[in-house]
Amino acid sequence: MSRALPALALVILALGDGEHTLNLVAERTDDTFVRGQADLSVGTSPVRLTVLDEDNYAVLRTLLVFALEGSTVRSAVLVATTAAEPHPRACAWTVRGGWLHPMDTADLQQAVTPCPGVPAVRREVYRAPALPQPHDSAH
């Protein structure tokens, strides 16, 4: 929990103003997948964070705790989609070494590209900002 809350705060700050959906997908060590999703509205003038469903946010936060801790999760990806015109924007972080690291944009593009013939919204992919690790902030 001591890493998950700062990580989420840094993700929210990095995303900035707007309507965001966070999706976390984790592969557990027993070869099953778990998923959490939370919809957020963020503003800076005035400062506000609105969580649309507290239970969904709690699930996402809990999954992030387990993903960062690493003993029961083999791999995890956090994708942030921001409502934007003409297309929503998406960036992602992978969990490595107990922290969130920007995901390769080519891998993300492949992951969010709809299958042929399936109606889906196209997302504009961009590189997620690097998030300073908590122990780095003291220097």
Explain what you see.
The chain has helices at 4-15, 54-69, 105-112, and strands at residues 18-28, 33-44, 47-51, 73-82, 89-96, 99-102, 124-125. The chain is of the alpha+beta class and 139 residues long. Strands 1, 2, 3, 4, 5, 6 and 7 form a seven-stranded mixed β-sheet that branches. It is globular and about 40 Å long. It starts with a helix and ends in a 14-residue tail after the last strand. The model has no long low-confidence stretch (mean pLDDT 91).
Number of helices: 3
Based on secondary structure, the structural category is alpha+beta
- Shape descriptor reads globular
Beta-strand residue percentage: 35-45%
How much helix, percentage-wise, in residues?
25-40%
Can you summarize this structure?
The protein is an alpha+beta fold and 139 residues long. The protein contains 3 helices and 7 strands, in the order H-E-E-E-H-E-E-E-H-E.
Topology, please?
Blueprint: H1 4-15, E1 18-28, E2 33-44, E3 47-51, H2 54-69, E4 73-82, E5 89-96, E6 99-102, H3 105-112, E7 124-125
Parallel strand pairs: 5-7
Antiparallel strand pairs: 1-2, 1-4, 2-3, 4-5, 5-6
Protein traits:
seven-stranded mixed beta sheet, 139 residues, single chain, alpha+beta, 26% helix
